[in-house]
Amino acid sequence: MRFHQKIIVSKMGLDAVLVATTIISIFINEIRTTDVDSKYVIVDGIKVLRADYEAFSRAEEKKKVQDALKKAKEDLMTKEYRLQEEESEEYAKRFPKRCHVCKIFVEELTEVLERNFTKSKSGEFPITTLEFYDAMDETCENMDKYTVTRVNSFRYKKGASLLRKTFEEAQKDSKIKHWSYTTPSDKIDDPTGEIQRLKEKCWRLTEYHGQKNLQRWLKKHQNENILNWFCEDIYLKNNKKGCISKQIWKDDEVKIRDEL
Ligand SMILES: *[C@@H]1O[C@H](CO)[C@@H](O)[C@H](O)[C@H]1NC(C)=O
């Protein structure tokens, strides 16, 4: 079991999508299992209750799952999959750039502020310093909701990772009720650690600029666009700013756009 898990994790570090496809193609060709104990079996890296697995093994059930997996595999052969396949882990290490960090920071901060506070008549959030610190904390925590995408011109989108979606798709029509992953959850959502780096850079941004520049914006400059006032003119100064004008897509919006 441990051996199996190790293989999955190290491969995932190299290329999450490839592993997802490998897992799926193994599923399609042959369901391979390893005995764990009397209660569970491992089905290609996913721990399954033996009773569930036995029910599922009956030919009729198997066919349904195979069809669902086949469809999941076809869906994977999308533009997003092909583009991600071309990207190495070394390349991923160059990201996120400062521009990405600031753009997502502002996107999330704005969402947190709008959700929790009502703007005054003059268009400002009436918020105390302490509340602002809470809002910034929440903002950085929310970076977890992002994943890398290669379809859109902005490198990140808000939504589940391709691998997570693949797993979910594979399980959707399955009669197996209890799935748990032998692969750590963070490896499914963030195989190259890029989202973790995004989060760390967000904390650093709030550390360096929270007290001074961001509070200045809060107290005196809320009428200014925070993307221009803070990101472009202060945080990015001499860095590349191209990503600021790009749109950040959310999962469901991407779907809608693809259909257009
Ligand atoms: C915003 O509201 C949510 C609940 O709707 C709460 O959990 C969160 O702590 C609030 N955040 C701030 C910064 O006030």
Automatic annotation (TrEMBL):
Source domain of life: Eukaryota
Keywords: Membrane, Signal, Transmembrane, Transmembrane helix
Regions that span the bilayer: 12-28
Keyword Cell inner membrane: no
UniProt keyword annotation of Transmembrane helix present: yes
Domain DUF3456: 106-234
Protein family (similarity comment): Belongs to the canopy family.
Name of the protein: DUF3456 domain-containing protein
Organism: Clytia hemisphaerica
